[in-house]
Amino acid sequence: xxxxxxxxxxxxxxxxxxxxxxxxxxxxxxxxxxxxxxxxxxxxxxxxxxxxxxxxxxxxxxxxxxxxxx
Length: 70
Fold this sequence. Notes:
By secondary structure, this protein is mostly helical. 90% of the residues lie in helices and 0% in strands. It has helices at 2-22, 28-69. Helix 1 crosses helix 2. The longest helix has 42 residues, at 28-69. The radius of gyration is 18 Å and the shape is rod-shaped.
């Protein structure tokens, strides 16, 4: 999970930094600060969605295994 958090954070910050500079015409420093702020939030959303999806798939797998045994 730590690797996922690190990768998601780096990719989010890089993408958001470019977006803030190119699309919103922010100065480089301010764009970086906004990118870090929103990158933290985006990382939390990405990791949460991944964990939720994994839990859903495990639950569906267990349900189908239980039906197969009947």
